[in-house]
Please model this.
Amino acid sequence: MVDNLIGQVKSSVPKMVTVHPTVLLSVVDHYNRMARETKKRVVGVLLGEYNDFGVLDVTNCYAVPFDEDLNEPSVWFFDHVYHETMYNMMRKIHSKEKIIGWYSSGPKIKKADIEINEILRRYNTNPVLVVIRVQEAEMLGIPTEAYSTKEEVDDNGNVARQFIHLPSSIGATEAEEVGVEHLLRDIKDASKGQLSKDVEDKINALKALAEKLKEMKEYLEGVISKMYRVNSTILSNYQDIFNLLPNLKLDEMVKSFSVKSNDYMHIIYVSTLVRSVLSLHSLITNKVETKEIEAENTRIEKERDDEARKKKEEESKKKVEEHLKKNIE
Model:
């Protein structure tokens, strides 16, 4: 039954889910406070807005008390009373933000998530689940995976809700971009050049591609072993990917790849050489300036010593003259 104070949001399944940086920071803080160095996960409610292009902007969130039995997945607790109290306070500040779903620190979907999702359906007809992987230190790709639910009929003719994957991305407003750049100042390595960063990004992209190919292989193996049901949409996407692959058996294609690779390697070689020459020039310039400063300091000290010696000689001469003058008198 829908809460009398909280109206149910009538929504459709979004085409894209965009998660804002403030949400990621809040979820990481929630996890570090409640479940760090444990096998537990944290759960909370997502707030946001639907735009006119079918994109769901997840702009805010708050934590909700949650607990589950690790040995018995069907035993769990979601404090919906706390959730309703929090939302009633949150909407006084951000009236445009609606309940659009919930988040989990995952890292994977669990058996009880369908039942938890049914609780959120009291407040939104099509809530989304965003799994935010906060445990993985070295992560490839974005740390979010979005899901919605739809009714499906199994082999026995029973109707049940199943999670479906939704495209997700990381987006930010102009103010959030400024804040994120400020936070990243202490993380970025200033000693690395732009070329090194670009190469590192390319390496990470290739690693992410390898992980995706591994997931595709595992899915096909699962279909062959009848662990998963055949999904014609997924197989159609596989076929489209294979059709878009270039034919590397053509001599012209091989030559084009070789020329492009050689161009990239030439640019990298020249850039590294120029950087080395500039570093060497800066080192030599620094040594020359250091020697000039040392010579100048030596000259100044010598002049001071000469002035002090002359002053002592003048004082001694003056004392001798005064002594002679007294003797004459």
